[in-house]
Structures are given as structure tokens and as C-alpha cells.
Amino acid sequence: MSDVKTGINLRSIVNAISSTVDLVNDNVTRHHQRVAYISHMIGQEMHIGDVRGYDLIVAAAMHDIGTLSDQEVTCFLHNVIDENVEEHAEIGYLLLKDFKPLSKVANIIKYHHHQWNGGRGHVAHNEIVPFEGHIVHLADTIETLIDKEKHVLTQKHNLIEIVRSQSGSMFAPDAVDAFLRAFENDYSWLALDDINFRTLIDKEFGEERQELSLDELSQFSKIISYIIDFRSPYTASHSSGVAAVAYALGRLEGFGDEDCKLLKIAGYFHDLGKIAIQPEILEKEGKLSEAEYAVMRSHSYHTFRILSEIKGFEKVTEWASFHHERLDGSGYPFGLTGKSISKGAKILAVADVFSALIEERPYRTGMSVTEAQTVMEELAHANKLDKSLVDTLISNITDIYKIRKISQAKALEEYVKINKSDSKRTNGIVLSGEKSI
User: Fold this and answer.
1) pTM of the predicted model, to two decimals?
2) What pLDDT, on the 0 to 100 scale, is given for residue 27?
3) Do 401 and 288 share a structural domain?
């Protein structure tokens, strides 16, 4: 493991991911930031301390990280209770549990839909449920019940009565009592519309001291790639493949160790903005309409917007966000031309196109390596992709193909493991169904 520090703190990443998860559904804009605020207010009233308080607010800001579809979000918004309610919490836990800086946060997320049930909710599956999970459960429910079309103060008393009526059954009584104290005044309710997670956490916990190492950042970026890709079986390993190809090309092009790792991280993050794209567009069997294509093109803008929030992440932000820029200026979102596109971004573009051509899509079968090579050469000839990078890819195509396939197979295994209880997500997965070289 590399201990090289990146200058990037965990708090910046969490803030960006909180914004990202909100993109899954238009109806949950700022949901996670408001849940973090409500949770924090309850935690303060309970005097849980800075260490637990920090984990609480971070868990609340990311609590729906396991929500892979906007259909699931719609169920939660309308209080539809089914097996998916606790399933997405379990998925969030599985995604984060092995990432040491967020291992305690993962356990809180695991139980953020767990009911108190007269005290029996103190334990689940023979393990103690962290009380912070009950706090997030209460805060999440309150925020969901708020009608965003009405002034919050006109709902205050009704919401308080709903919460009070469920004390001891759905919600932990101590958490309810703390909520009632914290939200007795109008100010606490009105502040919901102005809250900013980064401002809140900086104010309450001081300057961030948890700087991520390069390997920690790489591990976390891989987790985020799962959140992006696992929304559809057709893209369940795409970012892992792009990351592997980008890393290999960086090595071949003489990039240093640190920049090669940053290329891999950019590969994991490059489709972050696809969280905002509806699954029916991502999985459409056929050509996208003009309107649908316009929506699809917006994903690289969202990638840029979200990653730009992370201080010290400028290189990765550029490489990841410009993967659809083309040398002739026909790309997006900025329409840059060759000289304005960095070599790292050009590498990401080549890695993305090559991986996409080989992969299965709902509207076509994956190409053979020979077929993909022909298309890559045509794109280089048309001044879309960098010819020297395409030549490097083709000269080493057998090795790069194997590296990509191994990386994607590992990602697919994770996809199946995390979604083991959902046959709808795993039935379409084929671990070795690509055409041979």
C-alpha cells in the first residue's frame, strides 16, 4: 500500500458523493444534506460527542449510497415498504465496509431503516445496532415526509405529532425526545432550506485532518464506480475496464507511478454523471431520440460539476470529465479541440471508446477485438481520437485486452455478490461472454 498523501481530504469526497446520490432522482435534491442536518441536531441534543457525531453526520450525508435506481427512490418517497427498503441499506454497507476510513459509517448506513420495535430493534442478526442508525432512520423519515411544495412551518405541528405517535414503535424514544427539543423552535425548521453539508461539518468539527493516501483514494474511487455502473447489468463493469485500460496506456506512454494511479482513478470516476441519467435511457434497446441523446450528453457535465467541488482534484477532474471531447472539436461538454485537451484526457477517451466497443449493450452485441481495432483506427483517421495513443493501444492490444478483462471480471463478481438477493439485476450478467481475440 502506498502512503503517498494526495492533499485531498475525506470530507470533500463525502460532500461530492452526497451531491451525487441526490442526482438519482429529481425529487430528492438536497435530501441527504437535510438528513445530515436533522441527524446532527438530534445528536447534539443527545450529547453523543464529536467522534460519534462526525460519523453520524457523514453516514447521514451518504445514507442512500446503496440506492441504485430512481425507482427505489420513488418507493421511499411514497413510503412504500418492501424488501428493497432494507436491501439498499445492506448494499450501502457492503460497498463501504472494507474502506477503513468509513467502516463505522458503513455500519450506521446498514441499519438506517431499522425500526425500534419496542426496544427489540436494539439488536439485529445477533449484533448490536448502532444507535446512530436509529437517529438517521428518524431524520430520513422526517425529511421524506416534508412536502416540498408547501412552507415547512405549515407542516411543523403535524410532523411533530406523526413522530411522537411512532415513538417506541418505529423510532427510538430517546431520539424522538431529542428531536422534539431540537425542533421546538421555528429556526431549526427554516434552516433546512439553507443548510450546506460542507459548511455545517466544518463549523461543527473544525478543519478536516483526514487526508487520503493515493491508495485510499483509489479504493474509494473504485467503490464509487460500483455505484455508477451497478445501476445496469450492461455497464456493471464498464468503469473498471476503462480504469484498467487507462492505467495500462499511461504506463506505456511513460507516465509516472502517481499519474498512472490518477489515470485509474479518473477511469473509475469518468461516468459519475450518469447517476443523473434515467435507467430507461441507459438501457434503451435502440437508437436514442434527439431529446434522449441530449440528456445522455449531459453526464460528462455532471461529472465535471461534481468533481470540481473537490479541492486538489483538478487533474482527475479534467481527465475524467473530458473523456467525450474529440480532437476535431465535435465532442462535449466543452467542444475542445486537440491542443486544449491534455494527454491524460486523451488517454481516457481512448480507454472509454475501446472498452465500450467490446462490451455488450442493450442495442448491440459487443465487438470482437479485431472489429474494435478497426473502429479505433477509423476514429483516429477522422481526427476524433489521438492517433499515437490508438497506435499504442493496437500495438499492445492483446495484453491490454487481458488486463481489462481481468479487471472487469472482478467488478462483475462484486456486482453479483452485492446484488445476490436481486435476480432481476444478476440474471443479465455474463462473466465470460465476450467475443475472443
Assistant:
1) 0.87
2) 58
3) yes
